[in-house]
Amino acid sequence: MMGLSLKSMIQSMQVNDGTIHEGTVQNVNPIEISLTGNERFHISGAMLIVPQAYSDYNIEVEIKRESGGTYKTTGTVHNSLQQGDKVALLSFNEMKNFIVIGKM
């Protein structure tokens, strides 16, 4: 999913490049998104960048107690894209690559 880094994506964009599209998640493993209005155009694999914010990931939390000391624990953030989710996508490189920029 991360064929390009965010830095290389921004560096490769042309002045007039970059359009926002709406899409629908058709499949989650592997992730596949169709564009609204062009359901035959499916985005997946190296064409698609999905930021960590739109996946399940583990975090470590440190809680400070009023009585002093701290308590550390880990937890999982469940925020992965699900089939049927509507997403906003930014296209670049003449619609050869897309990045998920938000859930709708």
What does it look like?
7% of the residues lie in helices and 52% in strands. With 104 residues, the protein is mainly beta. The strands form two sheets. Strands 3-2-1-7-8-4 form a six-stranded mixed β-sheet, with no helix packed on it. It has a two-stranded antiparallel ribbon with strand order 5-6. A hairpin with a 2-residue loop joins strand 2 (31-35) and strand 3 (38-44). The longest helix is centred in the first third of the chain and has 7 residues, at 6-12. It is elongated and about 60 Å long. The two termini are 21 Å apart. The mean pLDDT is 86.
Per-chain topology:
Blueprint: H1 6-12, E1 19-28, E2 31-35, E3 38-44, E4 48-49, E5 57-64, E6 70-77, E7 86-92, E8 97-103
Parallel strand pairs: 4-8
Antiparallel strand pairs: 1-2, 1-7, 2-3, 5-6, 7-8
**What class would the helix/strand composition place it in?**
mainly beta
Cα(first) to Cα(last) distance is 21 Å
Taking all Cα atoms into account, the compactness measure Rg is 17 Å
Q: Which stretches are poorly predicted, pLDDT < 50 over at least 5 residues?
A: none
Q: Provide the residue-averaged pLDDT.
A: 86
Beta strand count: 8
Order of helices and strands: HEEEEEEEE
How many helices does DSSP assign? 1
Largest sheet: 6 strands, mixed
Shape: elongated
State the helicity in percent bands. Answer: under 10%
Q: How much β-strand is present in the residues?
A: over 45%
The main sheet orders its strands as 3-2-1-7-8-4
